[in-house]
Amino acid sequence: MAVTIHDVAKRAGVNSSTVSRVINGKATISSDTKERVYAAMKELDYHPNSVARSLASGLSGAIGVIVDARDAEAFSNVFFSRSLFAIEKVAQARGYQVMIANGAQSRGMTIENLMKEHKVDGLILPPTTVKPSLMEAIGDFPYVVLGTPDTLRSDTCWVDNNNEQGAEMAVRHLQQMGYTDIAYLGGYQKRGFTKRRVRGYMNANSGRETVLATDGTSENAYTAALESLQQPDHPDAFLCNDNLAAYGLLKACREKGIHVPEEIGIVAFDNYPLAEYMDPPLTIVDIDTALLGEQTAQLLFRRIENRTGNQQIMLSTTLVIRASSERKR
Fold it and tell me: For residue range 10-20, what is the model confidence (pLDDT) as tens digits?
């Protein structure tokens, strides 16, 4: 037998009319009541009739996640998948669907069409789309940027991980372990989060500043690391932009007969599942991308419900210490 709105009301301990108002967003309902209704809908696997809800509320029952198809790496890795999964979970709990669209088309027409044709009730945008012309076109339409935009940072609504803080924390950890000449390895230097990581590295680094940019591959990181390690005054520690850079560095160290962590200390961003199984296991700046997606979606729904204006949320990172940086002094 199909689950009805009355079943949801009974499970949530409210009237059927309250469930209807929560679904349609037509009245001011307390956050506690909304969460009870959403939880009951999820437990009972209740899915409101999207056509009926749209007619009643004027809402589409969908949110749009915009990706920049030109930046294939950023949207084809496990971390974006985790963020997207968290966004899906939050949306599903509210009876919403998630629509993914390419926003890399000229003049942002895909984004504008989604709004003008009422296909979505809110948008999650990548930082690369944040331009004055698009922000003017969006106006008061609910949106949240997934990441820190390089432009209009204080005038837009966004959620991001604190990459700068993570880099500072990593450098200070290496310093505490006795490493004195710390280099930064890997990453596209024009990409926003990489720039912020490098900035954090420079903020905390008290010695020589060495930034070895790569094309993002482990092969290129290996080449850059090997060239650096061949110098007589090579660094004694590296902060790697990601696990791929760390893998290339470890390969170069093995080739040169350099022991980690006795001679070289390594910390890398991003806690890939295999990071703890590398030889040695990698110390990691852990970026919680699932929390990033969850916070972004929750903020978007608050904006859809007209409960908040522009906000900027910066999520803290954590350091997971493993053998690659634990030099015995």
Answer: 999 998 888 88
